[in-house]
Amino acid sequence: MRPMTENGGVAQRADWMRDTRRSAVQDRIVEIAGDVFAERGADASMADIAAAVGCSRATLYRYFDGRRTLQLEYIGRVARRIGAAVEAAVAGEADPAVRLTEAVVVALDQVRREPALAAWFTPGGAGSTSELALSSEFVETAATTFLSVGGRPGQDAARWVIRVIVSLLVVPGGSPADERAMIATFVTPSVLASLTTT
């Protein structure tokens, strides 16, 4: 996968990057970074990612100004995919309590299916991962997809739901049925109450 020079070192710039639109290169870098994150976790270095991309770190920094920017871009893209999956799963559900409970359950399942994200949610990495999740598009996605009650999304409620999701990803709640029951009993009522309070 890595382009090599004749002497066996990583090429300074991958051939596929030449004559390719910047946005297409960035898309591919994010995709490759996802593979690296799956293997090494959220703390994979820019050097690790550059090696997988097949370019120098200097070239990688021309496309992303740092690891955090690249992490946030990756999380934002995954958040959009997960948001679409959640929306499809709860489409047509009129009961706000059922909708919210199922949205959280589906979000948990979707994150666990994403190899890079699953690697991030370990007890050792939970702090930095939750910080990334709370500073990214996950909050916006949660506010609009999970928490729209009468057209009124709640940012604070979204942040709290994300903290619950992160907690359950790091310390799962037994079986999926157990998690669903905990969410329905303890999370959904308090979140909906906070959204409907004037």
Automatic annotation (TrEMBL):
Residues 45-64 bind DNA. GO terms for molecular function: DNA-binding transcription factor activity; transcription cis-regulatory region binding. Coiled coil: none annotated. Residues 23-82 form the HTH tetR-type domain. InterPro entries: Homeodomain-like_sf, HTH-type_TetR-like_transc_reg, HTH_TetR. The keyword Transmembrane helix does not apply. The keyword Transcription regulation applies. Keywords: DNA-binding, Transcription, Transcription regulation. This is TetR family transcriptional regulator. The lineage of its organism: Bacteria, Bacillati, Actinomycetota, Actinomycetes, Mycobacteriales.
